[in-house]
């Protein structure tokens, strides 16, 4: 990595810098002419110099030069103009020069901006590229938030400086020298005064700003450390809550913020002191010009035109000079930042870039043995994890690795998966060091999975298929406009040193997964999902999800048939009462009061409970039907019963799980509200109080809560109000509320609700599990299982996969590794979160599934249960970092050794 920012910029942008410097040089000509023109206007047409006689004229734009060896050459004779015409002509030339200088500045600034953005893009990409090539051990010593902050924020000024690195000193310095030279030409002594002040500013101000640079460096470091600390708090929030250390973290953050405040306050004080001195020096010069220049003009040693031109020229001198001083400060500041970036990202040894080169061609199978020779591994503290282990693992061989925690078995598996680099010794395949093999080979032909999981924010499918996205496999299809845009982006990527890989292409290697394309991919991966027992989890996610009818047409088209099949199946099994179907003419006792009243679903987020309650039509319906007073009275009784039953219970009591209308935190609020409303009628309560009470009744379910509040009369009244609601519903509400229809799919409802078209009876034990099992069989019978599974695969796993349980994450991680159908599988206790029985079953499934139809990849598995080693060809027993025993199951189980002790 280049240590000097200036050299880095010049190396990558020298051709562009040379071009813009040439433009800057050209811009100095009209810039100088704009200084001289005011003098010509004042002395010529305004004061009459050269127009002494009546009708006198002068030549305008007379262009002639005395050229050595050639003599006098006249390029243009000029145009004869009188005094007024000359005034107008010179004024128009002045205006033209102003426009021309402005256009030069516009072009230069635009070019600088584009150049800076390209360089910023290049720097960020190269830093991320280096992160992808960091050795694995380095990630244990850095905080991800600090790295992200440096790439996102701290390199931002470097992009802006790129355009100014060479152009600004040339442009600003050229403008300042041009103005200063013009002043000297007009009057030597005034020029010397201006030069003296400029010299003081150029020497004193940069020296004073060294303190600013140091404070800026401290501010950058403390801000980065704060970012890293905040990242730690977010990642370790469970540990903080579990150990009651939130106030310790508050104290730590407050101290850090205080430190940043102190640095920034000193920075502001020093910054404005420097600004005050700089402004003072800039304003002293005009005072001297007015005093000394005026004195010289009074003596006749300086004409008025020259004095006006000098003052006008000096007016343009402080600006470039100040900006030049600011540029020097920015240069030093950015160099300090770049030095910090250099120190943070100049990590050795980096992974060779050739190891990560793109490979679009299929990679051949690994047919050679994995040979481990004298392998030694250590942790960051230097403690030995594995000590001089040598072993050979043949292709198609299954090897069980067993040993107690800390025995070195896990570290050995990590080395095989390239998660740890050896201190000494080698791991080779066909004589080639594992670390020197391209990732296009190891990342496709060797699969590694451990208990540690990480998933990127996105769908479950995108994370499941992540191990198959090695290179663009199918080009994206663009229309003409999109193709032009893509071409432009590609050209810009090349100029910024970025790759032109198209993210919109299809990157999934379907053949590697055993599929021909996206259409049959699900059939190829379903055996893997079944093997790791995650299919039911994905099915449950699908049942809780809404269905995109434009994508999953088959499911939405068959939902009516599914409802009928479900009813028939329940009747055949004598489970008619397990689901109470929706009936527009009857009250569904298993649904909430609100669901019964609405008899449909709202299109969220366009419509919510709060918006519906505030709608004039809904409020009018409540008034006309009298439901307001009925549900208010019902809500009061619910509040009284809940407060009486639960006010003495702790917030974490399991009884609160039965309350759908109130939380433990709401109990004190409603307790106070009941005391306030005890002797007040419905009309006396405020709208907010009525809403708070009526809200309780909307979530009430009689079979679940059993307060005995729903009478037949009230249920009939709710059904009647429901009919009235839908009979006269306004168009704006009708668009946002989908009424239940037994013959139609409801997109705004979940798949489970669509198939049930009713509610599960609360009195039935394990009803939900039984329904899910039956639904799974029905999906299979109607050939819809894969379609439903694809709905579940669209589930958003959240940041780091945290919307999934730990068990689901480990299953998904294992499935992702299996999908690659590699030659070597390394499993490092990948299912530690599961109970032993399920671990054993999944292990057997994988061994049986991977070794069928002539396929027999090598499997290396660090087992939690030593008894499962019976399924493997060979067993490696680790103890205290060494290979204690090796052999097959019959040999080691009969031998009175350590393995026999693990079995007992």
Automatic annotation (TrEMBL):
The keyword Nucleotide-binding applies. Residues 75-326 form the ABC transmembrane type-1 domain. Gene3D superfamilies: ABC transporter type 1, transmembrane domain, P-loop containing nucleotide triphosphate hydrolases. It is found in: Cell membrane. Residues 370-902 form the ABC transporter domain. InterPro entries: ABC1_TM_dom, ABC1_TM_sf, ABC_transporter-like_ATP-bd, P-loop_NTPase, Type_1_exporter. GO terms for molecular function: ATP binding. The keyword ATP-binding applies. This is ABC transporter ATP-binding protein. It comes from Rhizobium bangladeshense. It comes from the Bacteria. The chain crosses the membrane at residues 15-33, 87-108, 176-205, 280-298. It is a multi-pass membrane protein. Keywords: ATP-binding, Membrane, Nucleotide-binding, Transmembrane, Transmembrane helix.
């Amino acid at each position: 990595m280049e240590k000097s920012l200036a050299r880095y910029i010049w190396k990558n942008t020298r051709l562009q810098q040379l071009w813009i410097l040439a433009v800057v040089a050209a811009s100095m000509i009209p810039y100088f002419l704009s200084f001289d023109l005011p003098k010509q206007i004042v002395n010529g047409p305004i004061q009459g110099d050269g127009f002494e006689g009546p009708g006198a004229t002068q030549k305008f734009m007379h262009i002639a030069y005395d050229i050595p060896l050639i003599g006098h050459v006249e390029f243009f004779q000029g145009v004869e103009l009188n005094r007024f015409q000359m005034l107008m002509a010179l004024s128009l030339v002045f205006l033209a020069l102003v426009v021309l200088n402005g256009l030069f500045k516009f072009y230069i600034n635009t070019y600088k901006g584009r150049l800076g953005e390209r360089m910023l893009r290049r720097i960020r990409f190269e830093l991320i590229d280096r992160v992808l090539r960091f050795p694995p051990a380095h990630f244990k010593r850095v905080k991800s938030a600090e790295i992200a902050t440096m790439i996102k924020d701290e390199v931002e000024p470097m992009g802006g400086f790129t355009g100014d690195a060479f152009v600004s000193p040339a442009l600003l310095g050229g403008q300042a020298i041009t103005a200063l030279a013009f002043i000297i030409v007009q009057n030597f002594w005034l020029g010397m005064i201006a030069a003296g002040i400029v010299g003081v500013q150029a020497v004193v101000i940069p020296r004073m700003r060294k303190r600013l640079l140091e404070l800026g460096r401290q501010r950058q470091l403390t801000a980065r450390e704060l970012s890293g600390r905040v990242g730690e708090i977010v990642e370790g929030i469970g540990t903080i809550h579990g150990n009651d250390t939130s106030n310790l973290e508050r104290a730590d953050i407050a101290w850090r913020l205080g430190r940043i405040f102190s640095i920034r306050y000193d920075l502001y004080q020093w910054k404005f002191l420097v600004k005050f001195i700089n402004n003072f020096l800039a304003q002293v010069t005009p005072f001297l010009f007015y005093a000394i220049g005026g004195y010289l003009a009074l003596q006749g040693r300086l004409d008025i035109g020259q004095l006006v031109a000098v003052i006008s020229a000096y007016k343009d001198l402080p600006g470039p000079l100040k900006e030049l001083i600011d540029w020097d400060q920015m240069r030093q500041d950015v160099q300090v930042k770049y030095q910090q970036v250099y120190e943070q990202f100049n990590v050795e040894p980096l992974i060779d870039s050739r190891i990560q080169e793109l490979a679009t061609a299929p990679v051949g199978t690994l047919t050679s043995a994995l040979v481990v020779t004298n392998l030694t591994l250590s942790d960051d503290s230097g403690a030995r994890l594995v000590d001089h282990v040598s072993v050979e693992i043949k292709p198609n061989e299954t090897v069980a690795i067993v040993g107690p925690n800390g025995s070195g078995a896990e570290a050995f598996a990590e080395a095989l998966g390239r998660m740890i680099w050896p201190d000494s010794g080698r791991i080779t395949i066909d004589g080639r060091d594992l670390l020197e093999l391209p990732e296009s080979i190891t990342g496709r032909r060797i699969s590694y999975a451990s208990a540690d999981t990480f998933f990127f924010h996105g769908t479950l499918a995108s994370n499941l298929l992540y191990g198959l996205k090695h290179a663009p496999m199918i080009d994206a299809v663009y229309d003409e406009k999109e193709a032009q845009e893509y071409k432009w982006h590609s050209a810009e990527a090349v100029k910024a040193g970025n790759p032109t890989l198209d993210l919109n292409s299809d990157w999934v290697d379907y053949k590697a997964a055993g599929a021909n394309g996206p259409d049959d991919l699900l059939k190829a991966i379903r055996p893997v999902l079944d093997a790791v027992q995650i299919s039911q989890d994905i099915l449950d996610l699908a049942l809780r999800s809404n269905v995109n009818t434009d994508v999953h047409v088959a499911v939405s088209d068959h939902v009516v048939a599914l409802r009928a099949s479900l009813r028939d199946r329940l009747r055949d099994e004598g489970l008619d009462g397990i689901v109470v179907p929706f009936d527009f003419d009857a009250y569904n006792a298993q649904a909430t009061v609100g669901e019964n009243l609405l008899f449909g679903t709202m299109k969220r987020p366009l419509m919510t409970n709060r918006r519906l309650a505030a709608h004039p039509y809904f409020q009018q319906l409540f008034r006309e039907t009298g439901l307001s007073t009925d549900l208010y009275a019902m809500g009061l009784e619910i509040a009284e019963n809940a407060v009486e039953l639960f006010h003495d219970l702790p917030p974490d009591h399991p009884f609160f799980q039965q309350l759908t209308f109130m939380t433990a935190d709401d109990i004190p609020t409603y307790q106070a509200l009941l005391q306030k409303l005890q002797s007040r009628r419905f009309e006396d309560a405020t709208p907010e109080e009525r809403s708070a009470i009526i809200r309780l009744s909307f979530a009430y379910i009689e079979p679940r809560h059993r307060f005995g509040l729903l009478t037949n009369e009230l249920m009939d009244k709710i059904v009647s109000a429901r009919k009235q609601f839908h009979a006269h519903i306004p168009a704006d509400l009708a668009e946002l509320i989908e009424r239940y229809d037994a013959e139609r799919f409801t997109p705004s409802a979940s798949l489970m609700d669509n198939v049930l078209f009713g509610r599960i009876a609360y009195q039935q034990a394990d009803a939900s599990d039984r329904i899910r099992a039956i639904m799974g069989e029905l999906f299979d019978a109607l050939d819809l299982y894969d379609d439903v599974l694809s709905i579940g695969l669209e589930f958003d796993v959240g940041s780091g996969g945290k919307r999934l349980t730990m068990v689901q994450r480990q299953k998904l991680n294992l499935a992702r590794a299996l999908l690659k159908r590699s030659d070597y599988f390394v499993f490092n206790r990948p299912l530690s979160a599961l109970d032993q029985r399920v671990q054993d079953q999944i292990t057997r499934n994988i061994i049986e599934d991977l070794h069928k139809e002539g396929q027999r990849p090598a499997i290396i598995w660090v087992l939690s249960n030593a008894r499962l080693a019976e399924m493997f060809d060979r067993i490696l027993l680790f103890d205290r970092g060494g290979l204690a025993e090796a052999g097959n199951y019959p040999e080691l189980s009969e031998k009175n050794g350590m393995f026999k002790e693990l079995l007992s």
